[in-house]
Design a protein that fits this description.
697 residues, five-stranded mixed beta sheet, single chain, Neurolysin, domain 3, Glutathione S-transferase Yfyf (Class Pi), Chain A, domain 2, 8% strand, binds zinc ion, alpha+beta
Length: 697
């Protein structure tokens, strides 16, 4: 299938969406830091490759007193916190020039290019600052970055109301009638956008607020599970893992007790989103949000979710039965399975059946071993290798950040990954991929190399051992490296569609695919060696780990379907036919199976409604695609270079610059049906009988 050129895709984007593009917080960085000579790290252990050795070594304090401070990410202004102001002023000056240029340029593809540069110019500062304000250990850097974020934010708001700029974009559209009505409309859109930002913030804040209750309302013997303030008990979560049924029940009923203000806030948020969507010509918010995605429209999403739910129902029922029996066994008095039981009893069942002890695995998963594994995999499959490069003075924000150069065997350097892997106080405890600078074709024909940061929160190495990863941490590392490679190998013309800047329901495909590699023994055996003895990880330990993930997995999937359907209905046809709580109750009964509990409103804790409005299904759909790609392309031989190259060419290279479904079809070399999507997810739950028999021997 022919590729749809970036420029055409962008051209079809209406004015408001182009303005959105500016508004979007996309991480990019400004100074080109390519072309430095590669240096390899001093090899501290003979048993690992240079990459593995570097990650298993303890970070060294650098005592370079006289070297020149090159600034964060090699951006010389950022050698000190005041540099943010300089960088920000430069960006605003450049923005002014670009806006001027945009207003003077006659309609044509050049306008699109100017807009991409405009977006690049603002984002590379604002989003670098966005990263620094959460990750830098020095408070003065964080504060300076915070101010820059706000200043650029205000500038973007102003741009959004710049009529002249709108006009220049508007001229791109041929529809005369639409043009005439655009100005007041654009203003209204901006106003609604601002209103929506406020509502988003209030809702998001509210989803995390604790609920309090008079201490006498709760049996005294469970008081110590919760925090107390005077004579009130504060409940700030579901306590889903508590072993006492009563604790979970109390937490569930109190934490989810409906707050009238929040109910109102959600109603307003949904109304505002709908209004905005209508104003720019869509039937509903979901229709607007799903434009350009793999699913394309809400009908397809609902079709996918309904079909998946049907195919899953028997397995889900079985899972709930097992949980129910377990509950009865442990607590014969109360036996009906309730929503607060699901996470706890599935955990009990998993432990009973497989008893996976993470500490037995982690000596085989030293960080260096895992990085070795990733390097081997990428080299064999994609022809790109990782090289540890010594950062220059001032280039990184913490001594333990490692810099990786990603080098293609034919094309040479393709980008940089900064690995901020270790735990620090003040650092957000969340695995994350940040695009610091997006790849794009420069005016002089060269390619601006992508720069990303991978942030994890791993334990530090100790005197006696390197950092050892649990199986979960290892899988996360592979997942995040999947995002990083998506960014590294993207070769789009524009930065606003590069790498992970693609439709939400496609964005997780490369990262989830890496999880399949991480659980295949042919891949794992290449790197999982005991850090002391060099012994390989036994095959049956890997198989048991894989099988353990399937325990109650149907019920877990069912819960995700329920959330996704709820999100679709809330953002679908407006006005809603019933209250959000009544819709929750109905959807829960139809798509989940465990009873709704009166006087609860789980939707008020559904924080993803803000960031993933109408797109919560994305993760399920990405997983379905990753599963199809794994089974049809890689499962036979996960290290096959020809298939790896096809994957790179058909999927990774395009970012958001190609219709996502075409990428899937070109990779699979066929057009998958809805049944294929659904079957891919369901068949992942099938037990592997070989492991089963191996286990019972
Ligand atoms: Zn991800």
């Amino acid at each position: 299938m022919a590729e749809v050129a970036d420029v055409q895709v962008t051209w079809r984007v209406p004015v408001h969406e182009l303005l959105d593009m500016l508004n979007r917080r996309i991480l990019t960085l400004f100074k080109c830091i390519r072309g430095r000579r590669l240096k390899t790290y001093r090899n501290v252990s003979t048993s690992w490759s240079p990459v593995g050795a570097a990650f298993n070594a303890r970070p060294r304090r650098k005592a370079d007193l006289f070297g020149k401070n090159v600034g964060l990410f090699g951006v010389h202004e950022l050698s000190s916190p005041v540099g943010f102001q300089v960088a920000q002023e430069n960006a605003l000056k450049e923005t002014e020039q670009l806006v001027d240029q945009a207003c003077r340029t006659s309609p044509g593809p050049q306008i699109v290019q100017i807009f991409d540069r405009l977006s690049d110019c603002l984002c590379r500062v604002a989003d670098l600052a966005d990263f620094v304000k959460v990750a830098h250990p020095d408070p003065s850097f964080r504060e300076a970055a915070e101010i820059t974020c706000m200043t650029i934010g205000t500038a973007v708001e102003k741009l959004n109301t710049n009529i002249e700029l709108c006009n220049s974009l508007k001229n791109l559209l041929n529809d005369k009638e639409a043009l005439d009505s655009l100005d007041p409309e654009t203003r209204r859109v901006v106003n609604l956008n601002v209103q929506m930002l406020d509502l988003n913030n209030s809702f998001l804040l509210g989803t995390h607020l604790p609920n309090k209750i008079d201490q006498n309302a709760i049996p005294e013997h469970i008081h110590h599970y919760f925090s107390m303030e005077k004579d009130h008990i504060h409940i700030n979560g579901l306590h889903a893992d508590a072993s006492d049924d009563l604790v979970r029940e109390a937490a569930y009923k109190i934490f989810l007790y409906p707050n009238p203000e929040m109910l109102h806030c959600l109603d307003q948020l949904l109304a505002c989103r709908n209004q905005l969507a209508h104003l720019v010509g869509y039937e509903s918010f979901a229709h607007r949000a799903l434009k350009g995605t793999m699913a394309k429209d809400p009908e397809t999403v609902m079709h996918f979710l309904t079909k998946l739910s049907e195919k899953l129902s028997k397995r889900t029922e079985k899972d709930f039965c097992m949980m129910q029996e377990m509950k009865k066994k442990i607590n014969p008095k109360c036996c009906e399975l309730m929503p607060w039981d699901h996470p706890y009893y599935s955990g009990v069942l998993r432990a009973e059946r497989f008893n996976i002890e993470p500490s037995l695995y982690s000596p085989f998963f030293s960080l260096g071993a895992c990085m070795d594994g990733l390097n081997l995999l990428f080299t064999q499959l994609l022809g790109v290798s990782l090289y540890v490069e010594e950062p220059e003075k001032g280039e990184v924000w913490s001594d333990d950040v490692r810099k990786l150069a990603v080098v293609d065997e034919a094309a040479g350097l393709v980008g940089y990954i900064y690995c901020d892997f270790f735990h620090r106080s003040d650092k957000p405890h969340q695995d994350c991929h940040f695009t610091i600078r997006g790849g794009r074709l420069l005016e002089n024909g060269e390619y601006q190399l992508p720069v990303v940061v991978l942030m994890l929160s791993l334990p530090h190495p100790t005197k006696s051992s390197p950092t050892l990863l649990t199986p979960g941490m290892m899988e996360n590392l592979f997942h995040e490296m999947g995002h990083a490679m998506h960014s590294m190998l993207g070769r789009t013309r524009y930065q606003h569609v590069t790498g992970t800047r693609c439709p939400t329901d496609f964005a997780e495909v490369p990262s989830i695919l890496m999880e399949y590699f991480a659980s295949d023994y042919r891949v794992v055996k290449q790197f999982a060696r005991h850090y002391q003895t060099g012994q390989p990880l036994p095959q049956n330990m890997v198989s048991r780990l894989c099988e353990s993930k399937k325990v109650c997995a149907a019920a877990d999937l069912q819960l995700q379907i329920f959330y996704s359907v709820l999100d679709q209905i809330y953002h679908g046809k407006y006005p809603l036919l019933k209250s959000t709580t009544e819709i929750l109750k109905e959807t829960q009964e139809k798509f989940y199976g465990l009873p709704y509990v009166p006087n609860t409103a789980w939707q008020l804790r559904f924080s993803h409604l803000v960031g993933y409005g109408a797109k919560y299904y994305s993760y399920l759909m990405s997983r379905a695609v990753a599963s199809m790609v794994w089974k049809q392309c890689f499962m036979k031989d996960p290290l096959n270079r020809a298939v790896g190259e096809r994957y790179r060419r058909e999927m990774l290279a395009h970012g958001g610059g190609k219709v996502p479904m075409f990428m899937v079809e070109d990779m699979l070399q066929k057009k998958p049906s809805m049944d294929d999507f659904v079957d891919a997810l369901v068949s992942d739950l099938d037990l592997n009988f070989e492991t089963f028999f191996m286990d019972s021997e």
